[in-house]
């Protein structure tokens, strides 16, 4: 298999033109493709998006699902157009578990079999010339990258929100975030519990306790 590493959308277009593909499948690719690229494959371009579109359009749907405390997520296969995640839906399924201690590994164990099954359905529709089903644009939400301030814990926030903030950063494998002030010390908080557990107990803004079960002091800047 050839490995292509285009440095620009223009370079990608030139590479695809030389291969004359029938179909392009995109998964985890952050570029917005122009019409000049979308029109190259005979059957167009389809994308695998890890949400129930039109919910969580954008580059970070899974992070926002974790951040918002969603218990399950979805997978959608859709036709790509010139906007982010707005194309017609070919197949989708909800109900993929988002474990409290979610990792890429345990998420993929549940999500990839769903993705393979959806791709089979989507490919059959593509071959049949089916355009897919239009999205309900009025109900769309956007899932952009995490803002800089999300790296800092505020104990005035609700316990659940802070717990999900920690879960999100752990899933992102953020080495230095999120940071919190605890008893005069600055800590990188790696794991918390909403249930009584061994660790430091902190009362949050909603009056509910949260237990810090894994942390380390912030590494000083040399």
Question: Could you characterize what this model shows?
Answer:
There is one protein chain. The chain has 222 residues and is of the alpha+beta class. The chain folds into two domains: 131 residues, 3-Layer(aba) Sandwich (Rossmann fold), CATH 3.40.50.170; 70 residues, Formyl transferase, C-terminal domain (Methionyl-tRNA Fmet Formyltransferase, Chain A, domain 2). The chain contains five helices and eight strands. The strands form two sheets. The chain has a four-stranded mixed sheet. A four-stranded antiparallel sheet has the order 5-6-8-7. Helix 3 packs antiparallel against helix 5. The radius of gyration is 21 Å and the shape is elongated. The termini are far apart. The model has no long low-confidence stretch (mean pLDDT 95).
Q: What is the CATH architecture term of the largest domain?
A: 3-Layer(aba) Sandwich
Q: State the fourth-level CATH superfamily of the largest domain.
A: Formyl transferase, N-terminal domain
**How is the main sheet built?**
4 strands, mixed
N-C termini distance:
45 Å
Q: Would you tell me the overall average pLDDT?
A: 95
Q: How much helix is in the residues?
A: 25-40%
What's the CATH class label of the largest domain?
Answer: Alpha Beta
User: What characteristic shape results from the CA principal axes?
Assistant: elongated
| Strand content bin | 15-25%
CATH fold annotation of the largest domain: Rossmann fold
Walk across the major sheet and give the strand order: 1-2-3-4
Number of separate domains: 2
Strand segment count: 8
